[in-house]
Amino acid sequence: MGSRDRSSNVSGRGNGRQQLTGQIVVVLGGSSGIGLETARRAREAGADVILTARDPDRLHRIGLELGASIAAFDLNDADRLMRFFANLPGLVDHVLVSGAGPHYVSFAELEIGKIRQGVERIVLSVQIARLAKDALQPTGSLLLIGGTGGRRPSAGPLVAAVTAAMPALAKSLAVELAPIRVNLIAPGFVDTPLSAAILGDGLDARRERLRATLPIRRVVEPEDVAALAVDLMTNTAVTGATFDIDGGQQLVEG
């Protein structure tokens, strides 16, 4: 794959579903939810895909299903993350950093371990950006995942601070990494396995409430976010932007 010139495939105009033909997409955290669906859509659009995730067995199955290259490790392992980027087969075109769940912790419950866990999202994003700067084609893009839930005062000070920081980080990185493009996708509730794990028995009630109250009258799915992610990979005019994708959740729950 290497650093060959692929400028003919990055105009942003595309040709049907094969807009990413000849390009390489790296999905960090791609064995379920938003990351997995973005990997699927990127493959449908003609890209070669490299996936990472912590669970080696699940990742192996997904790699076989998609015909993707895989690397099993924890993104919070700084040394392993550095080795992953150093061992890429050449320059890549797009890197998506799939998000972990938000940490909704009230002020009364805050303790130093949870604070560190919360701000780790920002630290990790900066670390990945530093590595991606030398791994991406000049025509490439870095996509971060944030969220909209922390914009509500009731979300708690930690998630509110991280939510507010991510758009500012994306803008700054877009300037620092130029001409590489950097954008932030900010979902609300998305019906993923992670959401199911967080809500447990309350998942069905949450789905029904959203179907009744969201302006779009349905729950946002991982495929919705993946479609936006691929659009941002192919649209070479967009950088430093934050894209909310919550079905209007902020309008009715804000």
What's the short version?
The protein has a single domain (7-253), classed as NAD(P)-binding Rossmann-like Domain (Rossmann fold).
Task: Describe the 3D structure.
With 254 residues, the protein is of the alpha/beta class. It contains nine helices and seven strands, in the order βαβαβαβαβαβαααβα. The protein has a single domain (7-253), classed as 3-Layer(aba) Sandwich (Rossmann fold). It has helices spanning 33-44, 56-66, 78-86, 112-135, 157-176, 193-199, 203-213, 222-234, 249-253, and strands at residues 24-28, 48-53, 69-72, 92-97, 136-145, 181-187, 242-245. It has a seven-stranded parallel sheet, sandwiched between helices. α4 packs parallel to α5 (157-176). The model is unreliable at 1-16 (pLDDT under 50).
- Count of alpha/pi helices: 9
Q: For the record, what CATH class applies?
A: Alpha Beta
In whole angstroms, how far apart are the ends?
46 Å
Mind telling me the CATH superfamily name? Answer: NAD(P)-binding Rossmann-like Domain
Strand content: 15-25%
Count of spatially separate domains: 1
- Indicate the mean pLDDT: 88
Bulk shape: globular
Biggest sheet character = 7 strands, parallel
Q: List unreliable stretches of 5+ residues.
A: 1-16
Give the proportion of residues in helices. 40-55%
CATH topology: Rossmann fold
Measured on Cα atoms, how large is the radius of gyration? 18 Å
By secondary-structure content and strand pairing, the structural class works out as alpha/beta
The assigned CATH architecture is 3-Layer(aba) Sandwich
Largest sheet, spatial ordering of strands: 3-2-1-4-5-6-7
Question: Can you count the beta strands?
Answer: 7
Write the H/E string, N to C. EHEHEHEHEHEHHHEH
